[in-house]
What we know:
Largest sheet: 3 strands, antiparallel
Shape: globular
Helix content: 25-40%
Order of helices and strands: EEEHHHHHEEHHH
Low-confidence stretches: 1-19
Number of strands: 5
Structural class: alpha+beta
Distance between the termini: 28 Å
Amino acid sequence: xxxxxxxxxxxxxxxxxxxxxxxxxxxxxxxxxxxxxxxxxxxxxxxxxxxxxxxxxxxxxxxxxxxxxxxxxxxxxxxxxxxxxxxxxxxxxxxxxxxxxxxxxxxxxxxxxxxxxxxxxxxxxxxxxxxxxxxxxxxxxxxxxxxxxxxxxxxxxxxxxxxxxxxxxxxxxxxxxxxxxxxxxx
Length: 186
């Protein structure tokens, strides 16, 4: 790269493809999500190849490294499955939140044809026990194998919001290339 500037030891300007290589600005997540996603994808590729990027939160980069150390590849698509979908209803019945699921459904779920989000119940290890959403959202989730019985822990599919909530004990939202697995960047 030439003609760029340096920030925290990294040269910025144009990358090999001629794309603008900008410092990752988290404000773009909401004001220009497409630009943020492009910058995030470039940062993701550098960090997973071993090049530190100071603008990537340490917790996120650490999760990417832990996931890869557990054998998860950024090119992996499918999570491991801990149980067949047919076995999940029994697991769900035993879950401590099962008694409040009807109230959570009423308050949080949207399975109408225009619904745009999923309500997901996992166990303490990240195995999906229940999903509620519109038919279209469920179809999109199926393409990622975001399905009952699938393991969405770091060991099961790498960095994602479920795995990070399990690791940190806090609510988490991840966007685009904040996920380790590339097929989850869309």
